[in-house]
Amino acid sequence: MFGEQKVSFSGVQPSGNLTIGNYLGAIRNFSEYSEKYKTFYCVVDQHAITVRQVPADLRRRTYETLALYMACGLDPNKNTLYVQSMVHEHAELAWILNCFTMFGELSRMTQFKDKSARHADNINAGLFTYPTLMAADILLYQTDVVPVGIDQKQHVELCRDIAERFNQLYPGTFTVPEPIMAKHGMKIMSLAEPTKKMSKSDENANAVVYILDDRDTIIRKFKRAVTDSGSEIRYDVNEKPGVSNLMTIYSCFTGKSIEEIEREFDGRGYGDFKLAVGEATADALAPVQADFRAYMSDKAGLEAQMKKGTEEASWYACRTLSKVAKKLGFVQVR
Ligand code: TYM
User: Which pTM value belongs to this model?
Assistant: First the structure.
């Protein structure tokens, strides 16, 4: 809550090509808050460097992520869209919050455990304190709601604990945020291993459908998707994780309920169903892709939006950081 206004905040890392998991679990839901809330949606490039990045790729993806935000319906006049590293208060508050976050808490984060297993040669301190930077992102804007996929819920819960701890010592500092997850789509699974999350860093490109994949690629990937034994199109996450995941994706893109989908494909085989999921996905993404291309062709326009977003975000971030500094006893003579 900033003054009288409720706030929504979220972020996406420009660490790989964005997937339909990012779209359905997060970005698509961001615009829901644009009318009633003050909304901040950030491209979190500082989080991305917790694993090694090629600078030119990071730069390109930062532009692409901003363009995708807009292509997914986020109007920059109604939402503050910006890049994390351009607002220095994020890193400053992260340092402060590090001093209010326990080693044990960070050690328990599943993402840290997963990523340190995958990047065993680079278990850096930033990977470990990643969640305090994320808490800083959220708390700087006095955020009420954080729309995310389920994999980020644990981080938002830690952010709540940090905010509550800080507020107990220094009352009235932060709004305590809540994670908000889409009813369907909060966990889109890999097409190759449907018990594993679909991830932009997956090395198997056939396991992942990217938002920018062309129509033929999308249809081909769904045709190859792993399904389960039997031939029935029935929702059962334990017995039929592959089919259930495809049903969730189809439901998200068509708006049809799971029961409707079961009826629609009653007596039909996996082949028909996979083709329908591929076509529905390609149809839904086509306008997003067209808008994306238009935004990307105007680099100066994107940079103007970044600048505008940075100015807006900085105003709010600066207010919160100076409140925190005062509470902590930092001298501020300007
Ligand atoms: P990131 O970049 O990994 O993912 C961006 C958003 O997409 C969601 N998501 C998924 N949802 C459903 N199914 C999937 N397979 C799937 N994969 C990803 C994520 O949950 C996320 O909402 N730490 C964050 C970025 C971040 C952030 C923040 C988010 C930094 N600061 C502050 C919220 C608030 C991350 O790595 O997201």
Answer: 0.96
Candidate of 13, 142, 148 to mutate for ligand 1, largest count of ligand atoms within 8 Å of Cβ: 148
How far apart, in whole angstroms, are the C-alpha atoms of residue 334 and residue 322? Answer: 12
Q: What pLDDT is stored for residue 252 in this prediction? A: 97
Range of the domain at 81: 7-181+299-328
In a domain, 129, yes or no: yes
Residue type, 304: A
Closest by CA position to 86, among listed 326, 328, 334, 302: 302
**Ligand 1 and 152: CB distance under 6 A:** yes
Together in a domain, 109 and 66? yes
Residue whose Cα lies nearest atom 31 of ligand 1: it is: 134
Q: Tell me, what amino acid is at 295?
A: Y
Q: Is 115 in the pocket of ligand 1 (CB under 6 A)?
A: no
pLDDT digits (tens, 9 = 90+) for 216-257: 999 999 999 999 888 899 999 999 999 999 999 999 999 999
As for how many domains the chain has, the answer is: 2
